[in-house]
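fyi for ur records
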Amino acid sequence: KTSSTTTTDESSISQEFATQDEIKSFMNQLMQSCLKNTGMDEKMKNMPKSEQLVMAEKIRKAQDGFLGKMMKETEKMGEGNRVITADVVRRCMTQMKGGY
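which gave:
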């Protein structure tokens, strides 16, 4: 009997961003992917327009709050070293639990 274990070093999953616009663009891509993968995009299409607007505003506020946290984290990093790792994302997510 054999077993194999796959380990993913999350800190090695990273991307460097030069500007806030690059981070925002990347976050928008992630959000669209998440909405599609969870089926939320289809659920939202079937909601009344008023509910769609409320949901879109909640998503936008959360995204803006998260972007603000990410910008604060990257400002602590030196120029050319603004790399967002899984650890950075976790720190920002923890901060989001307090509200945005």
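Helices lie at 20-38, 40-45, 49-75, 86-96. thats all i got for now
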